[in-house]
Each structure stands twice: as structure tokens, then as C-alpha cells.
Amino acid sequence: MLNKLAAWSVHAYTAVGSVLALLMVHFSYEGEIETVLWLFLVAMVVDGTDGFLARHFRVKEVVPQIDGALLDNIVDYLTYAFAPMVLLWANGYLPDGPAGGVVACIPLVASCYQFCRSDAKTEDHFFLGFPSYWNVVAFYVIVFGFGTAPTVVLLMVFAVLVFVPVKYVYPSRTADLWYLNMTAATLWLVAFGVITAHLPDAPDWLTVLSLAYVAYYVVVSLWLTFRARPAAGRAARHAPAEAEPDPAA
């Protein structure tokens, strides 16, 4: 009984993200940008911890009728993709009129395809393609006060990167450099909170320091991607050839 209660509680914890997404949209239209950023932070903390809880309480075994991965994808799409586009569009960071809606739709459609890919999360625990961190993109657009043109360029570049098969680190799951990745990700979340608390006058040094983690994340992801490719190529070359079919059979 306690096992089932714990498992259902973990699912409820994940599902709270849908409520956070609704609040993000509401406060975006109210123009309360800092509130939305705080909600982004809460959503990222939930997303970064619910997997640990699910594995600890063996949720997949105890409540097999609920697909936790699907629930996680629904919530992540709302909080990482949909709500950030609403925030940018509702607060003047995108072009006026229908053009702004078109620009906002492009990342959303790109992320639709990514969230539906069977290999979006690889067997060795990486994200394949830019992992729809639109909340992070929106955060830096707001912190740096980007105008419409650079914001549109950023969104289009990252929308294309969704389809580029680079393997990005999944901080809580990727085995390589796990302790370093988790430590850096945790410190970045702390920096996110401190920067948000000081908006619109966040310390420049802290903002730049937070970007060091972003650079680290990209460099490590590229390194691990291209390190793995020669190994995969060697394995393919040394794999035994399949037997030719016998035409007489």
C-alpha cells in the first residue's frame, strides 16, 4: 500500500508541471516576467528530481498502467517549449502581429517532432538534437534584453538544431562525467535564481558566469558525440558479416 502511495505521489509531483505551465501562460499575459522565470526554475527543479524519485520508488513496476515517460514528455513540452514561446510573444520579444505568431510556432512544431521521436532520449542516456531548452533561451533573451531581430535569429537557429543529430548531455542520466555535470547544473540553477531575483539589474559577472555552464554543456556534448562516432565506426568494421542467403534454400 505504501509503495503504491509513494508511486502515485511521484506521478502527481511530475503532473504539477502542467499547473506550473498554466501559471506561466497566465502571468506571461499579465506581463509579470520575473514571476514566469521563477516558475521556470520550479519546473526545472521538478523535472530534474522526479526521475530520481521514480527510480527510487520503482514507479514503473508499482504503477505499470501509467506511462511516466509520456507524462514527463507532456509536462516538459508545456513548460520547456509552449510556455516560453507564450512569454516571448506576449511581452514584445517577437515581431508584432501575425509574424510573431509564425515565429513562435516554428520552435513549437520543431519540438513536437522531437518529443515524438523514439530516439529523442538515446539508450545511453543522451538527448538527440537540441533538447528544446526554450525556457533557457527565453531566460537569456530577457536577461540580455535582446530585441526582436536577435531573438528571432536565436529561435530559428535552435529550431534547426533540434534536427541536427548531436547527442546532448542528459545531466541526471548521462554516465560520463556525471558528478561534474550534476554539480555544474545545480550551480547553474542557483545562478538562475539569483539572476532572476536581481532583475532587471542582475550582476553582469554572474550572468557571464552562468553562460560558462552553457558553454561547458555544449562543448562536453559535442566532445562526447564525436568521441563516440569513431568507436561506433570501428565496431561496425569489425562486426562479422552476415551470412549470404543460400539461393538453393
Summary?
The protein has 249 residues and is an all-alpha fold. The protein has nine helices and two strands. The chain is globular.
Describe this structure in words.
Mean pLDDT is 92; it is low at 241-249. The chain has helices at residues 2-29, 33-56, 59-62, 68-90, 98-116, 134-144, 148-161, 178-197, 204-238, and strands spanning 126-128, 167-169. 71% of the residues lie in helices and 2% in strands. The radius of gyration is 20 Å and the shape is globular. It is mainly alpha-helical and 249 residues long. Strands 1-2 form a two-stranded antiparallel sheet. The chain contains nine helices and two strands.
Structural class computed from helices and strand pairing: mainly alpha
Largest sheet: number of strands, sense, barrel closure: 2 strands, antiparallel
What is the helix content?
A: over 70%
Tell me the radius of gyration.
20 Å
Anisotropy-based shape: globular
End-to-end separation in angstroms reads 57 Å
| pLDDT averaged over residues | 92
Estimate the strand proportion. under 5%
- Please tally the helical runs, counting DSSP H or I stretches of 4 or more residues: 9
Task: Give the strand tally.
Answer: 2
- One letter per element, helices H and strands E, the order comes to HHHHHEHHEHH
Strands in their spatial order, largest beta sheet:
1-2
